[in-house]
Each structure stands twice: as C-alpha cells, then as structure tokens.
Specification:
Blueprint: E1 7-11, H1 16-27, E2 31-36, H2 41-44, E3 51-55, H3 61-70, E4 76-81, H4 98-119, E5 123-132, H5 148-167, E6 174-179, H6 196-210, E7 215-220
Parallel strand pairs: 1-2, 1-4, 2-3, 4-5, 5-6, 6-7
Bound molecules: NADP nicotinamide-adenine-dinucleotide phosphate.
The site of NADP nicotinamide-adenine-dinucleotide phosphate (NAP) has 27 residues, from helix 1.
C-alpha cells in the first residue's frame, strides 16, 4: 500500500452496483474492502491484491460488530453502504404483508444508518460516508407513484441520513446520499436506462469530486442535486 492510496469499504458488493463500484475503485488505484453476505464468485473472480473480501449481513447487528472488530486496524476514505432490497416493490403498500414492508424499511433505511454509526470511527478526516438511496426516495419528485414501500424506505433513509449528519455536524462529517440512475441490474431490470458501467463510473466521479465535503448531499450519478 502506498501512503496516498485511498481505501474504500463497499458494503453489499456481491453483484450489481456494489460489484461494479469495487471494480471501478480498484481500476482507479484504490484499495478496496468489499463485503458480501455469502461467497460471491463474481467478487472472488476480481482477484486483485488490492481487494479484501469480508462477509456480513447489514441486518445482523452482531455480524456488523464482528466485522467492525475484524477491520479494527483499517481506516477508510470512503464507507459506501450499497446494499438494498426491493421486495414486492410493485405491490401497493396496503397489499404488502406487514413483515415484508417492515423488512424493506429495516434493510434499506435502518441498517445502513446503523452501519454508518458503527463505522464512523473508521473514517479518516476528509473522508465520506456514502449511502445508496434512489431518486424514488424524493418526496418532492414523486409524480408517478408506484414502488410504494421501496420509495418510503429510501425516503426514510434520506431523512435518517440528514439526521445522522446533523447529529455529527461538530465532527464535520460528510454524507453523500446517492442515486445511481435507473440501472440494468437484477433490481433495476432489463428495461432500465443505463448499464452498470455508466452508473458506477458516474458515481465514482461524483464521489471523487465531493469526498470529504461536510454536510448531507443528495446527488445523482451525474452530480446533479436532487430535491428532497
Ligand atoms: N438498479 C437500480 O436501478 C437502482 C436505482 C436506484 C437505487 N438502487 C439502489 O442501489 C443499491 C444496489 O442495487 P442493485 O441494483 O445493485 O441491486 P441488486 O443487483 O439486487 O444487488 C443488491 C445487493 O445488495 C445486497 N444485499 C441485500 N440485502 C443485504 C443485506 N441485508 N446485507 C448485505 N447485503 C445485502 C445483495 O447481496 P446478495 O447477493 O447476498 O443478495 C446484493 O449485493 C440498492 O440499495 C438499490 O436500492 C438501484
């Protein structure tokens, strides 16, 4: 490791956007610690000396604590919680079983904030916490409806991220709340607007430009500020 080499922790990197972000930051010369829930052949296949793969489920508090302990000697310029779910996203809120709706909220809103809180002590000065939100989390931009429980979970994430930043304002914390575009992944589907490479290239550029900027910033993969 060189002294100037940046280090990213990418959480939820088994596939999709998380995997693409790992590849992109490695290609840009960063060291990357990437997490999976279970062995990911795609992640293992990257086979870089600059990559460390760890296993954790963000919904599992003891597992997150154990990960924090295993990474005790590590410091990160970027801690990016990418993991998310869209279970029964096409059903209206009243038709989604309560336990499913609750789990979407827990995984997409509560768990990322708990992870950020747990790992804030591992962020270097001038680093950023990034949270994968969505434009669907914008209340103001919701003109089309749909994806109701998913939208609500990402709106909750945005609200919790702002409160997290306010709670840590004296520490000048930098929180990037990011929309990756509508992307062709398992979640985004084949009809989505853009491919993973376009999204993660844009996200990495935005992170590079915004790294360490104090405050909470809701931005898309092109660097555009989104309405709350
Ligand atoms: N694709 C889009 O168009 C789009 C648009 C806006 C926002 N997003 C957001 O971008 C993020 C990534 O989406 P994607 O399109 O890459 O989705 P994806 O292909 O479905 O991948 C989801 C990732 O999240 C991981 N994950 C889910 N629950 C987890 C948990 N409890 N603990 C740890 N990891 C967990 C999955 O791991 P496993 O492999 O173990 O399941 C997988 O790596 C999500 O937060 C999503 O809401 C996506």
């Amino acid at each position: 490791m060189t002294q100037s080499q940046k280090h990213a922790l990418i959480v939820g990197a088994s596939r999709g956007l998380g995997l693409g972000l790992v590849e992109t930051f490695l290609a840009r010369g960063w060291r990357v610690t990437a997490t999976q829930r279970r062995p990911s052949p795609a992640l293992a296949g990257l086979g870089s000396e600059a990559l460390r793969v760890e296993t954790a489920d963000i919904d599992d508090d003891p597992g997150v604590t154990a990960l924090h302990d295993r990474l005790a000697s590590e410091r990160f310029d970027l801690i990016f919680v990418v993991a998310g779910v869209a279970t029964l996203a096409h059903d209206p809120a009243h038709a989604v079983p309560r336990d499913v709706a609750a789990q979407v909220y827990l995984t997409n809103a509560i768990s990322p904030i708990r992870f950020a809180e747990a790992f804030l002590d591992r962020l270097v000065p001038g680093g950023s916490i990034a949270l994968m939100s969505s434009i669907l989390g914008s209340v103001g931009l919701n003109e089309t409806g749909g994806w109701e429980t998913y939208r609500a979970s990402k709106a909750a994430l945005n609200t919790l991220a702002r409160s997290f930043e306010i709670r840590h304002r004296a520490e000048n914390v930098s929180v990037l709340i990011l929309h990756p575009g509508w992307v062709r992944t398992e979640m985004g589907g084949a009809e989505a607007d853009i491919d993973v490479a376009t999204s993660v290239t844009g996200l990495a550029d935005v992170i590079g430009a915004q790294l360490g900027r104090p405050g909470a910033h809701y931005l898309d993969y092109r660097g555009e500020t989104l309405a709350w």
